[in-house]
Design a protein that fits this description.
Blueprint (H helix, E strand, L loop, with lengths): L3 E4 L5 E5 L3 H4 L5 H14 L59 H17 L3 E4 L9 H10 L7 E5 L4 H7 L5 E5 L5 H6 L2 E5 L2 H9 L3
Parallel strand pairs: 1-3, 3-6, 4-5, 4-6
Antiparallel strand pairs: 1-2
Helix pairs in contact: 2-3, 4-5
Length: 210
């Protein structure tokens, strides 16, 4: 594929970068991406919601009043689901929501997502994020220069950089992650990707052979 421009934090083009077509121009498989995203979101669920049925609620062992003769409706327990404080009918119980997707499918879905983003020109390649100290203002200025000030942005770093992480964490709708942690959901959830140049070999090293 043609070389893509690489910008610096001031928005100036400083070089060009050759990308692997196998990763950045792969066929876009919507069904596969949907399957992987559904599995990812399902796997985030704790599945710990729990309610008590009428057999688990304390009390209610005695019939509240006799069956006939009082003009009131028949009841056998004050812990019936129709009573306040009674058991819950068909309420949630702890369960496992996990869905498994094999590694090859996950990688192909990520290639599809990156290719779709690249096709829509919703990606910017940055030479580096060089901050002497944590400074949110410098990241905000960079986003303003790149025209991404009010967009949902994902910054992809080659490795964890605490200075960059601390500079980004207070900016709404801007997130940052390592290239090796990149996944289909995060790519599709962002409106625009900023990929640091040194993160490209990390991404391609994992996905080029998938």
């Amino acid at each position: 594929m043609p070389a893509v421009p690489v910008c610096n934090m001031q928005g100036d083009e400083v070089e060009e970068l050759d990308l692997s077509p196998a990763v950045w121009e792969a066929p876009v498989n919507d069904a596969l991406m949907h399957q992987v995203v559904v599995a990812y979101l399902a796997n985030q669920r704790a599945g710990s919601a729990s309610t008590r049925g009428r057999a688990e609620v304390r009390g209610g062992g005695r019939k509240p009043w006799r069956q006939k003769g009082l003009g009131r409706a028949r009841h056998g327990s004050i812990r019936s689901p129709i009573w306040r404080g009674g058991g819950v009918t068909f309420g949630p119980k702890p369960r496992d929501y996990r869905k498994s997707v094999n590694k090859k499918a996950r990688r192909n879905a990520l290639k599809s997502a990156l290719s779709a983003v690249n096709e829509e020109s919703a990606i910017t390649f940055l030479d580096e994020i060089d901050l002497p100290r944590p400074k949110t203002r410098d990241i905000v200025q960079m986003l303003r220069v790149l025209g991404l000030e009010n967009r949902k942005v994902l910054i992809v770093m080659p490795e964890r950089d605490d200075t960059a992480y601390r500079s980004v964490r207070n900016i709404p709708n801007v997130s940052i992650m390592r290239a090796e942690d990149l996944n289909t959901y995060e790519v599709l959830n962002a409106e625009h990707l900023i990929v640091v140049r040194d993160a490209v070999p990390v991404i391609e090293g994992v996905l080029a052979s998938a």
